[in-house]
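From the shared-data thread, chain only:
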Amino acid sequence: MKGIQNVIFDLGGVIINLDTNRTINAFNKLSQIPFESIYTQAKQEEIFSLLDKGKISASDFFKEIKRLIRYNGPIQDLMTAWNAMLLDVPEERLDVLVEMKHNYNTYLLSNTCEPHIDAFEKELENEHGIKNFEDYFDKVYYSCRMGMRKPDKEIFEFVLQQNNLKPEETIFIDDSPQHVKGAGECGINAFLLQKNMSVNDLLRQLKLL
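Structure, as C-alpha cells:
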C-alpha cells in the first residue's frame, strides 16, 4: 500500500458496531408483516434510500413504514426499532482514528439518516463525552446531508473532488460489498471489512497502522 495518503471510512459496521438483525427483529415484534420483506442490509425499498438521501423527512418516513407494516401503535416505537441496530463505539477504535488522522488525511462517509445521527451522537456523548465525530476526521460526510448515497459513483467522486484526492492514493473501507464495488469503480483502493474482523485489524493487515 505504498503512496497511500487518504483513508475513507464507512461508519456503521466499521466504526460503530452494528446489528441490522436487531432492527429487523424489533420491527417483527411490532407487526406480522416480515420487516425483511422491505429491508435488509443488502437491499431495501426506495423509502430507505429517500431517507438516506435526505429526500424525505423522518416524520414522513415513519408514517410510510407504519403503512407498509400495517402498524397502528405510536411512532416512537418505530423510531426505537429503527435505532436498535446501532450498538457501541469501542474506545480503542476512537484511539485508532486519532492515530490514523495524525498520519493520513481521513474522512468519514456514511449512508445514514437524521434519526440515526441523533441516536449515535447521544450515545457518543453518554459513553465517551464527545458530541460527534468531527474531531476524529478531516471531514465527515453523511448521505442525508449530501443528497446522494453509496454505492453511487457520484458520492465517491464528490469526496475525491472536494478534497483534491487522487483515487490511487486513497483507501476506502466498508462492510457492504456493493459500496466497495462502487468505490472501486472510481479507481479507489476499496476493501471489504469482513464480519469476523475489526477495522483495527484490517488497518494493521494493510500496514497502515
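The first strand starts at residue 6 and ends at 9.
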